[in-house]
Amino acid sequence: MDCPLIRSELVGYHFGTLDDRAREGVEAHLLECTDCLRAFMRLKARVEQGAVGERPSEAARLRLRDDVLATFPRAKAARSIRAPAVWRRPVPLYQSLVVAAVAVLIAKAAPSWVERVTRGSASDVAEHYVDTSRTLPGSLNIY
Fold this sequence. Notes:
The chain is mostly helical. It has 6 helices and no strands. Among the domains are: 51 residues, no CATH class; 35 residues.
């Protein structure tokens, strides 16, 4: 096998995608040719370091971007901040009316609940109040 053919197969050899016959040919050539072995070792080092290749040119990048946009068109309205799905879905009118009715009932009942709580707590304190202002032993009776 000649060097240009082997060098085109080095990536497949490194990732193990060659069939058995091609893999054996590459291995045999790498044992004989030090230039191809060095090329393989450089390729292996670049892949392991994460520098697989050079960045594409600006023209290639723009052409690829145009192809992607043609294949996957953008949405009609791009939203940078999206509301949760619960807030985006339409709410039926009856649900809104039920929520409003419950809010009105709570607003009307709240003052009477506050009055009951404050009145009840004052009477509870009066029942268990011990008068400690008198000095006589009989004055420590619970009223």
